[in-house]
Amino acid sequence: MEHYRLLTDDEILTLEDNGCTAEDWTNVSVAEDFKPNYIWRVNFYGEVSLGVFEKSLEVSAGFLRHSGIRNATLRNVTVGDNCLIENVGNFINNYIIGEECLISNVCLMETTDGATFGEGNNIAVLNEAGSGNVTLFYGLTSNLEALMIRHSADKEFTAALRKMIKEDIARRLPEAGTIGDGVRIINTTEITNTNIGDNCEVNGACRLSDCTVMAAPGDSVYIGSGVICENSVIADGSSVLNSSTLANCYVGE
Fold it and tell me: Of 7, 62, 90, 150, which sits 20 to 30 A from 13 (CA to CA)?
């Protein structure tokens, strides 16, 4: 776990000279080897923790840019080592961001109270005229989904299964939204109440709201231009492209 310390007076002066402000500088903590040189025009609110900014990231093939934070407002955010965050039009609120992430030209990223990140929703599958018979959650498989559908009339079984899923979700539910390591979020309008796993890419999406975007080693997710995705779980290796609109869906397998 990263060890953080308070800013020194000299670091605060450097940040202020770089156009930065803080609601309370004592609520901004940094990694031991933090240097403020690559933090420009950033507004800090609430509790913010920053890693180090020592490396460059490849933003396009053969094009490297130094990590840092520029032109952004952060509230209750943790930023991992060597991220490049720039040109956030509105703010980032209540997020834990992993290492070596690229977040550029994003309007809004926010997690609100009570967010479940698309997990726990009941949707109707092969039962459009009836009530929801499949519960979305991280780890749903086609076999389990078939079991839910086949035995949806068994109220006792359905109640027991949903109780197990609800307890599993409650155990894993983070206090803030999470962005994994190596994530790229570019030219995207809105991300609210959405968890994004390691090495996934969101490029040009309109809105991700109440979603979980999963990833496995070597099996990330790509979400492309114009996509609107709500109340959904997107599994490892999936791609959502070309102005697709998803609501109450599980994408995977």
Answer: 90
Which amino acid is residue 69, in one-letter code? Answer: I
Q: Report strand pairing: 48-50 vs 28-31.
A: parallel
pTM: 0.91
- Decide if 60 contacts 50 (C-beta within 8 A): no
d(C-alpha 79, C-alpha 99), whole Å: 7
CA distance 226 to 244: 7
DSSP 8-state class, residue 243: T
Tokens of 244: 């697709």
Dist. CA 126–CA 123, nearest whole Å? 10
Q: What is the pLDDT of residues 62-117, one digit of tens each?
A: 999 999 999 999 999 999 999 999 999 999 999 999 999 999 999 999 999 989 99
Residue in the structure block whose two tokens are 């035995």: 151
Contact status, residue 117 vs residue 211, Cβ threshold 8 Å? yes
Nearest of 240, 195, 237 to residue 216 by alpha carbon: 237
Name the helix (H) or strand (E) containing 25: none
Dihedral Cα 243, 232, 252, 80, nearest 10 deg: 90
Cβ-Cβ contacts under 8 Å for 175 (sequence gap 6 or more): none
